[in-house]
Amino acid sequence: MIIIMKDALTAKMVLAEAQNRQLPHVYRFENRVGFAEIKNINELSFINQADIVETIADHPAAMQVSRTFHPDDTIIQTPHSKIGGENFNLIAGPDAIESAEHVLAMGQAAKDAGATILRGGSYKPRTNPYSFQGLGEQGLQWHRAAADALGMDMMTEIMSPTDVDLVGKYTDIFQVGTRNMQNFALLKAVGKQSKPVLLKRGMSATVDEWLSAAEYIASEGNCQIILMERGIRSFDQKYLRNTMDVSVIPVLRELTHLPVLADPSHAAGVTEHVTPTGLAAVAAGAQGLMIEIHDQPDKAWVDGKQALTPEQMVNLFTKAQTIHDIVK
Predict the structure, then answer these.
(1) What pLDDT was estimated at residue 56?
(2) How far, in Å, CA of 176 to CA of 228, rounded?
């Protein structure tokens, strides 16, 4: 149940009293107080009815991440980026960290193209257990050094709750990948720390499942969450790695206050399709793009088939910025 109070001060007092009574899962945004486990206003006798503007019983199960509870766009501030609202964010880097020199070179190319966030994987969730799994902490160190040298934010994937402290020593933004979207122990773990979390859509996840995964993070106290559409599992494996669900972007912009970005690299899976797929996502309202780049895609350790060269990245980012400026 969400209760809209007459002002923010009254809502703050209601929250304090609810916490004093040890009511579970009570949250506040400005003049709204949300009770995740209470459906009947009669259970809240300590609230003065005269202070209530409206009571909303029929609200999304993922309450905190909904616009019903939080009408305003969330803006996430990192050392080098503002994410959400009318901001447009460009994220790029190699799929896997390969060497200190390579991640620095790719980071420089990304920054020159307008990106403020350097992505790269040091822990790789691979379908085949014998495929390259990442360089671990050595990769994190090289990644961090490159981001610092370039004045960029660092974003990297985390796979296990046990790695939160280690990865958190290096990264500015945690990335939870598609295979871990419903790894609830991991979602709770990143929810207990204070850095932003980028949550990719599960490969077959519904909108409600995705938003509920975000709510797991928020329920632990961390509302700095970024949603990323990366394509859902397709039945046409001959031509498509995944299907970019362009229609979900405006749906999410309506349902949630969280920033909504897109990853056309994993959706398209083939270099020549990444740019048109990314532009379609921006036209639909995506507030940023993340792509994989490599100067020699045929020699990339992971996913070279979908990597753009730095020159192709510039072409995509230039067009994407123009489209964003038109539709924002």
Answers:
(1) 96
(2) 10
Q: What's the rounded Cα separation, in Å, for the pair 272 and 305?
A: 10
For the sheet containing 26-29, what is the strand order? Answer: 26-29, 32-35, 2-5, 52-56
The fold of 76-327 is TIM Barrel (3.20.20)
Residue 174: per-residue pLDDT: 98
Q: Measured over all CA atoms, what is the biggest interatomic distance in the chain, rounded to whole angstroms?
A: 68
Q: How is the chain split into domains, by residue range?
A: 2-56, 76-327
Report which residue type is found at 124.
K
Which DSSP category does 72 fall into? Answer: S
Listed residue (95, 99, 137, 140) closest to 120, CA to CA: 95
- Successive 10-residue mean pLDDT values, the chain, 328 residues: 97 97 96 95 93 95 97 98 98 97 98 98 81 88 98 97 96 97 98 98 97 98 98 84 95 98 95 97 98 96 93 97 94
Dihedral of CA 161/163/169/173: which sign?
A: negative
Residue 85 CB partners (closer than 8 Å, separation 6+): 73, 74, 75, 259, 287
Q: Cα 75 vs. chain centroid, distance in angstroms?
A: 12
Helix residue spans in the chain (DSSP H): 8-20, 100-112, 137-150, 164-168, 184-191, 207-219, 248-255, 264-268, 271-283, 310-327
Closest CA relative to residue 89, chosen from 242, 291, 327: 291
Contact 312, 271 (CB under 8 A): yes
